[in-house]
Amino acid sequence: MSEEDTYLRAKLTEINGAIERLTQMLNRMIEVIAKITEVQEAQSDIALAVNANAERIEEILETVKNIKQAGPSAASSGPSISQKGAVSSHQAVLDTLETQIREGVIASDLAQKINDSADMLESKGASGGLIVKMQRWTRILRTYGRVDTISPSDLQKLRDDIKEWSREISKMR
After folding, report:
1. 169, 149 Cβ separation under 8 angstroms
2. Against a cut of 0.70, is the pTM above it?
3. Please, is 16 exposed, middle or buried when counting C-beta atoms within 10 Å of its C-beta (0-12, 13-18, 19+)?
């Protein structure tokens, strides 16, 4: 073998190595682009879910406002049928909050929902302690950003408080 053949063979080996490295880099770039596409699709799905939840919250808020307008505003000395109905509507409000939590509603929307529920319960004559606890959660949830999800520890505490609120409303019956 001549010196030129050896030189050519070395250059071809070098070129082959460079082609392999380029192929590996292209494969990694394709993987990255595929991951970016997956993230964009997931982001679109999340945006759709957030919009659907926002629409559902608007419907619930409208229902709560209608309940607020239709319910009795003054309480009598003994529990009347209308008061028992109001207590049932209080329980429905708490059940709705629990559903919102299970569906992963964002913190700011849940804060608004709890605040509206507290206002409605207050106008229906619910206990002051219950209203204060609900308003406390409204303030806590407003510390989150506009689209932040609620931390698991706060979610668990909120679920526990909603159970306690439910017991308080049951006592009103």
Report:
1. no
2. no
3. exposed
